[in-house]
Design brief:
heterodimer, A: Alkaline Phosphatase, subunit A, B: disordered N terminus
Chain lengths: 527, 555
């Protein structure tokens, strides 16, 4: 972005910090921000770090609802986090964080983190493999995509066949996955756009020129030879070594923390000047069917260790980046293939569920909690799921638009549809300042139904503003029942009848979406 | 332990292919030449454990890859029974056909051109492409027999190059000659090759005339084909000249596609051989009897014990390992050469002794053979059971594509770089390592990546079909173990196996049951497209990873 443009855009936006619904709007006109921008935005070297929490993270015990704590507590009596132990967020009272997540709490309170409630997609899949694929490809529930959402972005940004990379203009890997094979997320139309660094050991062996040991046999001798050639054929070896060598000291990271080990590598490569746009790291064990907490103290146990590990790693990563003067280049996000069921099971665990919160962090991330605490029924049954408030592709779209500065045309190409955009990242990142919409809808009931409970039909009333309005009806499994409204309205109040005569009894959710605003209305069908 | 000095095979051919020179890693010389564990095992018949590992080792070395079908069919049999099956000669294949369309000599599409009239240069090139594709097809469709690998072995030994022969019928005929004698008698093979029209053209034998004999073939007959240039091989320049004179008069008939003997061009004087060949004299024969001098010549050469030693070393380097140390020379090469000689140069008897020996099944001799490009490409297709189209037009196209893949990996079937064969089999000290350099290794990875994902020129590995042949594909532990048994010869640690299972196959999930249920869903309902794609994706990731590791290059 040109400095002149920046000034032009920021002049009217130079407002004082205000808090709206937990969102702090930063003082765009303040001078440290100005100083930072001329460097950060000019070379457009933004990096996205995706942190995959493999196994299906229990979102309800990560972001704990305080405004409906009673319902939460009674839905999961054996594993609920005590209200007094929940970590509080500045200027936000409706929910807080798991006690093990002090690092993320601190980032939030410093204005560098955003929490997006109940992220999911219509008709969720409860299989790990399939759900992971949906998240990585950005497909609909019933759709099979062969390319990943990151790969499609990189295809757009760096066109041409994969074997034309690396080249003089792009000597660095476009995407790097640490800890596994190249993620399906980086699969482009024809080829993978990413490279894999199998493990932390692999990385340090690469930059130190160390070879894995081989047996003292003829086979060992040949293996050593082939490995040596293999290392030399890694076209990115030089770029990675060069970037790594520019960083000679890093901040402290927690020990015995696999995610921290991975993020430490990412920090080193980012600070070393590698132009890689996307990193994928992952950590597993979130499939907490049993014993996710200790029975005596629910703030301890397996899930607490996992969340603490994630939180510590993220905090150390951001601190390190700050010390290396590279934090302004980075936005990170956590995601998991699904959340878990509202009601806990008798094994002190939770089973495969649906929507769950995501955490987005970085210097340019807008502080805030998007959405409301999940709707929890008074008497939860084992099948009850957290209804989605935001589509995960809205998060992708927002990051692509607000961090990678992708325009509308490309956005539609990458994500196949025009998804709702959320105010996740400060407008200064891409030089497009748009005032934050008034998200303070708490007191306004934008969507209601009557009667409620109802027996066969109910009248839904909604109040909408400019732009497109969409209303989706989900059942308690998160399945999309219908989309009765999806069009541009003149601002005003509208009604329609939801006929559920042929639907089974139970809870239904009417999700209202208008611009960045959304509300979910629980509706109960009875005999 | 003292090492026997590696034997320079053929000094004149020791220059390096320019491509290789440019891509050879300078770092390879910096490698620690640490002592590698050595073994003193010899030809004593192997009586140790006979299990799946030994069977797969035997199959990988004698055929292109070890297919699950062959493993399953042979695993109940004893070692000698399996070796007997592997040493069974195969019938002649169906000859290659016109897959190229218009043919000025009148060969219809789909009909064989091997007995047709010679075409113009363009047509001959098309036929030679057809021949190369056809040869790939023979390899892909080989039975549980060493026959096809022996044809390749002899091609590397009795080299001809299509680019120099340029007569497709001769070239095919030469391939048949190798096939007919591949597992028979080496002396008979040598005679057949000496008189083979393809070889007569390739090394100018068909121009060799009395008065001024052409020594080209005569020299290679000693230096490359029989006694070689080992430390105890002392044939002389006079022997080369005498041999050339013995072989005067042979011609080729391009109409009948045979070699002939022109009595008027034969040197009828006596031929004197050196002390190395017992000072024997071949008395010159006149008329048609002149053609029989070749028998006397081979009697003289094959009386020299160097022949058996030279061929046994070559077999060893092809089937076991390239480095022949003092113990191997004493315990394997010399006794094997004795068997070869005393059997009257019976190839099958000799191979049987090698493939049933303690030395062959010595764990130190397993997993150390770097796959040749042919072994890599054909082996991959066979092990994964890759299917090819059955209509000859597309079939030849795909076979040809695979041939081209091997050619860019430095093994162009029908066209070794020199009369000495592929460098990997004689160029000391690197030998087989010459197959792998910074240009060829990425090509190998590109091929395996392509085959396991989107397909390489429309040829794809079906990972579901492969997994289905394993003992218990629904169990991720068994799936990884069984896959590695077939695809790797190097044992991998439990850590690597766990990594392959958890991180790659299960994509980070720690519960084995998730794979089991996905696999079972696939088996009970393959029409569930989303699930079938998941199972396919995970298997593709697993096999892609396995084939990308250096271990996959070893056989």
């Amino acid at each position: 972005m040109k400095r002149r443009d920046f000034l032009k855009y920021t002049a009217p936006a130079a407002i004082l910090p205000t808090i709206i619904n937990g969102f702090s709007i930063k003082a765009f006109g303040s001078s440290p921000m100005l100083a930072a921008l001329s460097g950060a935005a000019a070379d457009n070297d933004h990096v996205l770090v995706m942190i995959q929490l493999t196994g299906g993270n229990d979102g309800l015990n990560m972001v704990i609802p305080l405004d409906i704590y009673g319902k939460y507590q009674s839905a999961r009596t054996n594993i609920a986090i005590p209200e007094g132990k929940v970590l509080r967020l500045d200027n936000y009272l409706k929910s807080g964080l798991h006690p093990a997540m002090k690092g993320v709490q601190q980032l939030y309170n410093e204005g560098k983190a955003s929490i997006i409630q109940s992220v999911g997609y219509p008709s969720p899949n409860f299989s790990h493999f399939r759900a992971t694929d949906i998240w990585l490809t950005g497909s609909d529930s019933n759709e099979i995509l062969t390319s990943g959402w990151g790969g499609r972005y990189l295809d757009t940004k760096y066109p041409g066949p994969q074997d034309s990379y690396p080249n003089a203009d792009n000597p660095d890997p476009l995407a790097i996955q640490i800890g596994s094979i190249v993620s399906p997320a980086f699969q482009g139309a024809d080829a993978s756009r990413g490279m894999a660094i199998t493990s932390a050991t692999d990385f340090y062996n690469l930059i130190d020129g160390v070879m894995d040991p081989v047996p003292n046999t003829k086979a060992g001798k040949e293996l050593e030879y082939i490995r040596m050639i293999a290392k030399q054929t890694n076209s990115y070896e030089k770029a990675i070594k060069a970037a790594a060598s520019k960083v000679t000291s890093q901040g402290p990271y927690p020990a015995n923390n696999n995610l921290a080990d991975q993020l430490k590598i990412v920090a080193r490569l980012v600070a070393g000047g590698l132009k890689t746009r996307m990193y994928m790291v992952s950590t597993g064990g979130f499939d907490t069917h049993a014993s996710q907490t200790e029975s005596g103290d629910t703030t301890t146990g397996g899930h607490a260790k996992l969340l603490g590990g994630v939180s510590d790693a993220i905090k150390a990563f951001m601190d390190d980046l700050k010390g290396l003067k590279a934090s302004r280049r980075v936005v990170g996000m956590t995601f998991s293939e699904f959340g878990r069921r509202i009601k806990s099971n008798f094994s002190m665990g939770t089973d495969h569920g649906a929507a769950a919160p995501m955490i987005v962090f970085g210097d340019y991330v807008n502080q805030g909690v998007l959405g409301n605490s999940p709707a929890i029924p008074d008497n939860t049954s084992v099948a009850d799921n957290v209804p989605m408030q935001y589509d995960f592709r809205s998060v992708y779209a927002s990051i692509l638009e607000q961090w990678f500065c992708v325009d509308q045309t490309d956005l539609n190409k990458i994500l196949q549809k025009d998804y709702q955009r959320l105010p996740l990242i400060s407008g200064v990142a891409c030089g497009v300042i748009t005032g934050l919409p008034d998200l303070n809808t708490d007191d306004k009931k934008l969507i209601i139904n009557s009667p409620n409970p109802f027996t066969s039909a109910t009248t839904i009333t909604y109040i909408t503003g400019n732009g497109n309005t969409m209303i989706q009806i989900f059942d308690t499994m998160g399945r999309l029942v219908s989309v009765p409204v999806n069009k541009i309205h003149t601002p005003g109040t509208y009604t329609f009848t939801f006929d559920a005569e042929y639907l089974p009894n139970g809870v239904y959710y009417a999700r209202f979406q208008n611009g960045a605003v959304q509300q979910v209305r629980p509706m109960l069908k009875v005999k | 332990m003292a090492e026997l000095k590696a034997i320079p095979l053929s000094q004149p051919y020791r220059f390096m292919d320019r491509r290789q020179f440019l891509t050879l890693s300078p770092a390879r010389n910096a490698r620690n030449s640490k002592a590698v564990a050595r073994t003193a095992t010899g030809l004593t018949p192997y009586t140790g454990a006979w299990g799946i590992q030994q069977l797969i080792h035997l199959l990988k070395r004698t055929t292109f890859g070890a297919t699950p079908d062959n493993i399953n069919a042979l695993k109940g049999l004893g070692m000698q029974q399996v070796v007997d099956i592997l040493l069974t000669a195969q019938a002649d294949p169906t000859p290659p056909v016109n897959n190229y369309g218009s043919d000025s000599t009148g060969v219809a599409p789909g009909a064989s051109w091997v007995r047709a009239a010679q075409g113009d240069e363009m047509l001959e090139r098309k036929r030679i492409d057809s021949y190369k594709a056809w040869w790939v097809g023979q390899m892909l469709n080989q039975q549980a027999s060493i026959h096809e690998k022996m044809v390749l072995f002899w091609h590397n030994h009795f080299v001809t190059e299509t680019t120099m022969v340029n007569d497709s019928r001769f070239i095919y005929q030469y391939n048949l000659t190798l096939r007919h004698y591949a597992m028979g008698n080496f002396k008979a093979l040598t005679k057949a090759v000496t008189l083979d029209p393809c070889m007569l053209v390739y090394l100018n034998g068909y121009l060799n005339s009395k008065g001024a004999a052409d020594e080209n073939y005569a020299r290679e007959l000693h230096e490359l084909f029989t006694v070689g240039k080992g430390p105890d091989s002392h044939y002389t320049e006079d022997d080369v000249r005498a041999t050339a004179r013995v072989l005067t008069g042979f011609r080729v008939d391009r109409t009948a596609i045979v070699s002939t003997f022109n009595t008027t061009q034969h040197d009828i004087t006596n031929k004197q051989f050196s002390g190395f060949y017992g000072n024997k004299v071949i008395s010159g024969q006149t008329g048609p009897d002149g053609a029989a001098e070749v028998d006397s010549l081979l009697d003289i050469i094959f009386a020299q014990p160097e022949v058996a030693k030279f061929i046994c070393r070559k077999l060893y380097r092809f089937f076991v390992y390239y480095d022949i140390d003092q113990a191997t020379e004493a315990n394997v090469i010399l006794p094997l050469a004795d068997i070869f000689r005393s059997s009257g140069y019976d190839i099958k008897v000799t191979l049987n002794a090698l493939f049933t020996s303690e030395h062959f099944f010595d764990p130190l001799n397993m997993a150390c053979l770097i796959k040749s490009p042919v072994d890599f490409c054909i082996g991959m297709c066979r092990e994964f059971g890759v299917t090819f189209p059955t209509d000859y037009t597309t079939q030849y196209q795909r076979w040809g594509d695979l041939h081209n893949a091997m050619a860019v990996m430095l093994q162009n079937l029908g066209d070794p770089p020199l009369v000495a064969g592929w460098e990997a089999y004689y160029q000391e000290p690197a030998y087989h390592e010459l197959w792998i350099n910074t240009a060829t290794l990425p090509r190998r990875n590109q091929l395996s990546d392509g085959m396991i994902t989107a397909g390489y020129k429309n040829v794809k590995i079906d990972p579901l079909a492969f997994a289905d042949k394993l003992s218990n594909p629904g169990d991720p532990v068994a799936l990884v173990n069984d896959s590695l048994d077939i695809l790797y010869r190097v044992g991998v640690s439990d850590n690597v196996k766990t990594f392959l299972k958890d991180t790659i196959l299960l994509a980070g999930q720690s519960t084995n049951g998730y794979w089991t249920s996905a696999w079972n869903t696939y088996k009970s309902n393959p029409g569930d497209a989303a699930n079938t794609k998941e199972v396919t994706n995970h298997l593709q990731a697993l096999y892609k990873y396995i084939m990308n590791l250096s271990e996959y290059q070893l056989s």
